[in-house]
Amino acid sequence: MSTSPKPHPEHPSTYFVQDRSNQDELKRLHIQDQLMTEVMGGVLPEQPDPASFERVLDVGCGTGNWLIEVAKTYPTARQLAGIDVSRTFIEYARAQAEAEQVSDRVEFHVMDALRMLEFPSDSFDLVNQRAGMSYLRTWDWPKLLQEYQRVARPGGVIRVIEGDPSVESSSPALISLFALTRQAFYQSGHLFTPESDGLTSHLARLLHQHGLQGLQKRVYRIEYHAGTLQADMFIEDMERGIRTGAPFLSKWTRLPDDYEEICQRAIREMHEPNFVATMNLLAVWGNVSDTIEQNPVDSPR
Questions:
Q1: What distances in angstroms separate CA 70 from CA 31, 43, 296, one per listed residue?
Q2: Among 148, 150, 186, 253, which one has the highest count of C-beta atoms within 10 angstroms of its own C-beta?
Q3: How many Cβ atoms from other residues are within 10 Å of residue 135's Cβ?
């Protein structure tokens, strides 16, 4: 990049886990990041010419796995930047980049995307966002999409990946936990509607409404079956998430009296030999116009 953002103190976060030093959440994010890339079939599986992205920004990069994999997969990607509001996550990501020997092309910064992206205009060929529902509220999208388009070059790609907070599963208790999670995310403003597609069904509209062109989308229907590596990673993700997400659920929804029993039952059921779980991921992407109009950023809520 032509200029490097200066370090600054962390801002208050809208991330659903408030304790940024939580090591369970750090490990869970690391697993989730790897799992998303694995089940989608790579870092940029739906892009026709991913090697053309020389300058890449990953917003809400978490533990940095996706961006590091981009660097390893595409040697032509020469400038890659990841940002996250958590210094704990960023320090971990930097250490990972050093260990994978890609730190000469990959940089990570503590930065709050909801305030501004501290990069010059026209800096990136691709702006990537995965699992933003964990910190984005419905009223955050307009300003953020404008910032994405500002820092992307004309004709550059904005790519958003989100999952439905819903699951089809052999585990009734796991289904119940997802229903509670969905209710909490809706009550806290992270979903537009309380339905399972309360965010994903709105993504294409949001990107179109705020100026992106040539929109495309792809649905990934993911199945986890007991005894597979992907299922093992999913189960560990869920087990850690049950612990780290509990304060968020109790803040935004009324937990049933037998909540702890539901959690324990879900863990037992996920370890049964016939366990299966099915979820959806949606990728939506579009191109930045040559002329970006400054749209109002009033809340869509």
A1: 17, 6, 34
A2: 148
A3: 20
